[in-house]
Each structure stands twice: as structure tokens, then as C-alpha cells.
């Protein structure tokens, strides 16, 4: 089906949903989102056509970018990104079909463009089906993680280059204004990860009806942190260990700390700095200084039921189970669409119903989702 026909179908569907007296507000929101994504795809293809054909000259413009700025009020970066996305889709037919139908957003398309450029054309074409499936089902952040991971595996030498480059740019400034302070600067990878870990932990909504925005919660979290530091005194001896998590294969860790071609463990995929992404060997060495190392037996080595499954012997998850759950879910709440960090270990078969405290029957939930889970349980009549 031609792009025009797909776009018109999306418009008709949205109109039908909006006119129907049986449509819920949720149906209307879904239809409008699909229409927006479909029209984004159509507009991107039109801009690429205007650029490639030189049609912008027909209206006295020097390029498609200048024409779009004047006629569509798009800035130059947005126009170039749309044109690049349309050109990317020409090489990814499955992704293009989903894009023009409004099944994923322009942000997803931009990430596919990034993959073509930084991971590789052949590699992205090979991953097309998987990337398209993820784009259809998840927000752009999930697709970004996959693409960044693929880039790290394909080009591992660039990881430490990025860290060193960031170290050279490090800077932070506070400028006093009439109504507060203006913060500017740039944080290196490891420093930013520490800041992000602290702010995320302090800014999670703790109760229903919290109307603060995410930025307001982060600011309140930073305020709480500063109050604690000032109340307990400033650290002066450098003995406070940063609460930052690095997930790394035993072989990759051995290769970073003590390279040995004859070692039993061979280097695996790059290490993952939680909250940032893949990192190189030199940054791994830097972060292990003074850090606590926690081994976790993952499934590809084999389950260790004697350690991780405790049946009915304990109601609450053990420390090792909590670490395994955190590792399995990458520190994120198990509920679809929730990006909060894991706060509680939840029995999928309730303890009161005889559910054992076994790893396969536990999931990590944030405080809000855990509270909602128990609030929605049927009460005995």
C-alpha cells in the first residue's frame, strides 16, 4: 500500500474513533498517537523527496532545510533528522512498513538511523526484524539500549575513548540568579552515573497522588541529599563508597584487571554501567578501585537452586535473591511501562496462598507498583 493510502487510513480510523460514542478516552488517545506517528512518517518522506528532487527551488528556497524552516517552522536539526530517517527506511522495508502505519514513532526511526551510522548498515539490516519488533512494543528508550549495546559490541575500542573525552570536558557551575541558582556543566560518565543513581533513588514517587513533575522530584531529591550531608557532616577522608552498579562478565573483569591470554575465563561482552550503558576496560578498572564485587550465577552457567530457592523457609527474599532479581530486570520495575527502580521483591503466587520464596516466582517492583498490586487484591467476603 502506498504511503498516501496508509496515512489516509490512519486519518479515517482516528476520525471514526473520535466520532464513536462507544470509544473510551483511552481509545481516542491510542488513535491520535497512531495518527501522529503515521503523519510524522509521511512528512519525513515528503521532506526527503523535496530535498532529493530539488523541489525546494520551486518556492525560492536554497534547500529543503531552509524551505521547512520558512514554511513548516521546523528547525534545521529536526528537518535533517526527518530526511535521514526517511532515507534509513528505504534500506529497512520491514521498519518502513511499521513506521508509515504509525506503529512506532519518529524517535524510534531516528535511533534506527543512528544504528545504520554507528553500528553499521549490514549489521542493522541483519537486526531489522528484532529492532522493528522492539520499536513496535516499547518506548524509544528500550530501543536505544539495544542499539547502544550493539555499537559497544561492534566497536568496543570507542568506549574508553568516549570516557577520556568526557573527562577532558568535565565542568560544573552554579550561577546565582534573582530567583535561585542556574546549573550548567558537563559530567564525565562515572560522575554522572553516581549523580543519576542518587537522584533516581531519591525522586521516585512514594505515594499516590504525587503531582510533582519528574524534574521537581529530582530537585527535591537533591535537596534531601544535601540536607543529609550537611546534617551528618561533609566526608573528608574519601572512604564513602559510591552506590553505582557495574554489571560485568567474569571474563571481561579478568581481562580488564589482569589480562592473561591463557586464563580460564575469556573476555565476554563489554561491562554495563547501570544508568549509562556499555563502558570500556579502563573505566572498569577505575570503578573497581574500592568497590565491592558481588558474584551472581546467571542462567547460562546453570541455576543454583540450593542458594537461590528457599521454598517456604523464608517469607522474604534473601539478599542473594534480591541481587539476582535486580540483575535479571536491570534494576527496573517489572510492570510494563514503569521505569522506576526496583524497591520490593514480590511473590507472583502470594505467600498467603502458599507461594514459595523461589527465584522463578519472585519479581522486582517499585514501591508504587507493589502498593498497587496489594491494594488491588480481592478481599475475602
Automatic annotation (TrEMBL):
Pfam families per the UniProt record, alphabetical: DUF222 (PF02720), HNH (PF01844)
Alphabetized GO MF terms: endonuclease activity; nucleic acid binding; zinc ion binding
InterPro entries documented for this protein: DUF222, HNH, HNH_nuc
Domain of life: Bacteria
Residues covered by the HNH nuclease domain: 320-371
Keywords: Endonuclease, Hydrolase, Nuclease
Family the UniProt entry places it in: Belongs to the Rv1128c/1148c/1588c/1702c/1945/3466 family.
Protein name: HNH endonuclease
Provenance organism: Aeromicrobium flavum
